[in-house]
Amino acid sequence: MGDAAVHQEYQQLCKKYMAYTEQLAQLICTYDDMILQQGPMIEAKYIQAFGTLDRAVYEAFVRVSMLKRKIDLIQAYLNRNEPPDHERIELILQQELQTYQRELQRMEDWQVWSEAMMKARKLSEEESKTMKKLYHDMAKALHPDLNPAQTDAMRGLWHQVTAAYEDGDLPLLESLYDIFQARSGDMETDGSLDAWDELQQKYDSVKAKVNEYLEKLAKLGKNYPFKFEKMLRQPEK
Fold first, then answer.
1. pTM higher than 0.70, yes or no?
2. Per-residue pLDDT tens digits for 178-232
């Protein structure tokens, strides 16, 4: 095969690699947006709609469970032909009740959290677009799935970026973007696309990651809280 043909095939592979890289970046941003932004808001809406009912159901479950447990403890004494030690039984029940009480407290804490989420300032459509674009641009250079050979500087900055995105802190994200641009020259990895084998290896890796994220997104949409998103949009449901 002539040099021209090899060069043409290399260029074609390079184009496919870049296309998959861009697709992966989009999928990563979509996934992260669901996890960091959409998911918490959907969960907050779900808790606001059903949290009180969930708590009431759990409290009823606790009452029934404790009654059944009390019956079992009394029956154990009767099976041994002994009079039930009611003080001992109540002590055991109180100790076991603590586990249920921790869950009830957790449910109450989530109710408070959901109320705070619903009252928090929402980004405008324009602000949301800006935040997503900044995140997308930085993800392409910093996300570990797109950059396996991360440096310490990349890891540290990426941690700050994801935290700012999760908090919806656009001013901080803009500041981090400025830092990212200033440091971009220092964050380049040692990898090179000069060798065919290396390019093929990177292409195979990014293609596999694309399929991995497609599967993750498909599963995510079927799980809590995303599976309730459509229902929450319809109050009559």
1. yes
2. 988 887 655 444 444 455 777 888 888 889 999 999 999 999 999 999 999 999 9
Give the gyration radius of the chain's Cα atoms.
27
Residue bearing tokens 């090179």: 192
Residue 59: strand, helix, or coil: helix
In the chain, the amino acid numbered 140 is K
- Whole-angstrom Cα distance, residue 167 to residue 161? 10
- Report whether 119 contacts 45 (CB < 8 A): no
Closest CA to 73 of 60, 62, 83: 83
Mean pLDDT of the chain: 88
The per-residue pLDDT for range 83-118, each reduced to its tens digit, is 999 999 999 999 999 999 999 999 999 999 999 999
In contact, 191 and 149? CB cutoff 8 Å: yes
Q: Is the dihedral angle over the CA atoms 107, 111, 116, 117 positive or is it negative?
A: positive
b/e string for 91-111 if b means 16 or more Cβ within 10 A?
Answer: eeeeeeeeebeeeeeebeebb
